[in-house]
Amino acid sequence: MALLFLKSVVLPHRTGHKYTPLPIHATDSLSSNEKHQSSTVETVHISPRLISDATIGLSDGLTVPFALTAGLSALGDSHVVIYGGLAELIAGAISMGLGGYLGARGEADACAAKLAETREIVKGSSSRAKMLIGEAFEGFEIRRQIIDAFAQDLQGNDERTVDFLMKFRWQLAETDFVASRAYVSGLTISGGYLFGGLVPLLPYLFLESVEQAFIGSLLVMMVALFAFGWVKTALIGERDRWTCGKNGVQMVVLGSVAAGAAMLSVKALSG
């Protein structure tokens, strides 16, 4: 029984039968509106990796260009602030995008290499594959005879064994490291940096006074950082407003610290 349960959890059967839900009786306390909202929430799914890439791009875009423009505003010349901010924004977006692409491409190459290595192990050394299967269950306090029986049954299919080892021994899902993911990662980070960096730069384009533009940029940046922290937290499934607000305030504090450090550095260097 334990072996059958283990197989049903780790390797669920993929049959063509359609899932039939249990009938809902008229006494169900949920209203039709609540059911519709529940089904809507369950169907919405945003890739955690996409959120991570957008967070990297937007957070750096909202803080780094603002810190630079805030530091340059201490010189009192709006043209220097605009040109310096635009130059940093373009260069930063390209650099961040390339970094995201190369990082994701490296992960995809590493996953492909591990996949090839795992296939060689499964094909050439059944004892080594059996040992790796057992290592996947370390810490779960499962009896050895159950693991051995499971490994013996699993090793009847090489592709299934490779799939198991990739997911549960190496924690690598092949679909998460496809080559096209590198392009998506690079574009997401670069686009987020470019969009986020334009936000604190806009007041300098419309206000003549550097002092007024700096105050406007500061206010816009604080609102944008707070909104970004709130939305980012909500997208990962958090429904508590207090937690969302706390993360928004955290983003504002981090951005303010970066801007203050930049301004102090420029003032110290300019005497």
Task: Round the mean pLDDT to the nearest integer and report it.
Answer: 81
What order do the SSEs take from the amino end to the carboxyl end, as H and E?
A: HHHHHHHHHH
The span between the termini is 78 Å
How much helicity do the residues have? over 70%
Helix- and strand-based class?
mainly alpha
- Taking all Cα atoms into account, the compactness measure Rg is 26 Å
Uncertain segments are 1-5, 13-32, 34-43
Number of separate domains: 1
Structure notes:
There is one protein chain. The chain has 271 residues and is an all-alpha fold. The protein has one domain. Helices cover 77% and strands 0% of the residues. It has ten helices and no strands. The longest helix is centred in the middle third of the chain and has 47 residues. The chain is elongated, with a radius of gyration of 26 Å. This is Protein CCC1.
